[in-house]
Amino acid sequence: MSGDSQAAARCTAASALTGRRILVTRAPHQATELSQSLRALGAVPVEVPVLAIAPPEDFTALDLALGSLAAFDWIVFTSANAVRALVARAAELGRPTAAATLSVAAIGRATASAAREAGFSVALVPEHAVGESLAAALALRVAGRRVLLVRAVVARDLVPDALRAAGADLVIAEAYRNVVPESSIPLLVRAVGQGIDAATFTSSSSVTHLAALAAAASIPFPLPGVPAVSIGPITSATLGEHHWPPAVEASRAEIPALIAAVQSLFAAG
Fold first, then answer.
1. 3-state secondary structure of 84
2. 190 phi-psi bin (left φ>0, alpha ψ -120 to 50, beta other)
3. Beta-carbon count within 10 A of 3 CB
4. From CA 149, how far away is CA 72, in angstroms rounded?
5. Which CATH number goes with the domain that contains 81?
6. Closest listed residue to residue 131, CA positions, set 164, 154, 167, 155
7. Is residue 229 within 8 Å of 248, Cβ to Cβ?
């Protein structure tokens, strides 16, 4: 495709989004990239946070891990929120997070970026930002190694099961909880009342939490007549379980690919 053709294609995609109201379900501290990119393409991002981050009810496992980070060979982060939660707790306790011999694995580029910003040296980022890819990338590296997995309180067991099967001496530290923000109930009521052209989902939790918000607001779920746009296969599977199969799925589990998926939805229409 020539330069002129590429420019024309970008213009067409942007025009297709002009005035479209796109539901953004990310937590406020994570919504900026998606919302700004949609706005730059002429869309109207409608922010209804369905996830809020709260501390775990029990810090015991995380505190013990923070007290002996140097004893681990690997630390595995399954989200940027896991990085931030660990760093925040370490600061609260006055404990350093640097360990010269520690190898760090991050599930995707956003998580790796958060880890580097926190001062970690990231040794491994899998090709695809999903648990299956992370587990496969680590499988040949963790036999006989002591591994710390930092994650949310409620999470899939795929990664820990795979690490144990690969021979890792695994410790799981639950660093945060995803909770449903009640303050978003009126935001959802208003958003649905004004109309939504598409809903974006960046995790399975964003699906289940929007379902909970809709129930609390007495709004039908799935949202009637609203196409769903999924960031990847795990999120798509959760949407399917809620009888809302995505109209389009991002090619990679990253925000730029999710935006491209939104563009393709309306360019095709």
1. helix
2. alpha
3. 7
4. 10
5. 3.40.50.10090
6. 155
7. yes
Dihedral over alpha carbons 56, 58, 62, 68 (to 10 degrees): 170
Domain membership of residue 4 (yes or no) is no
Q: How many Å apart are CA 47 and CA 26, to the nearest integer? A: 8
Q: Is the pTM of this model over 0.70?
A: yes
Alpha helices, DSSP H, located in the chain: 3-17, 32-40, 60-66, 80-93, 109-117, 131-138, 158-165, 184-194, 204-216, 233-241, 255-268
Average pLDDT of the chain is: 90
Q: Is 201 helix (H, G, I), strand (E, B) or coil?
A: strand
Domain count, the chain: 2
84 within 8 A of 114, measured Cβ to Cβ: yes
Tokens of 130: 């999903």
- Statement to judge: residues 69 and 157 lie in one domain: yes
Domain boundary among 177, 192, 211: 177
Same domain, 102 and 135: yes
Q: Are residues 33 and 115 in the same domain?
A: no
Q: Which amino acid is at 129?
A: A
Q: Report yes or no on 5 lying in a domain.
A: no
**Pairwise CA distance, residues 89 & 74, whole Å:** 19
Express each pLDDT in 222-261 by its tens digit: 999 999 999 999 899 999 999 999 999 999 888 999 999 9
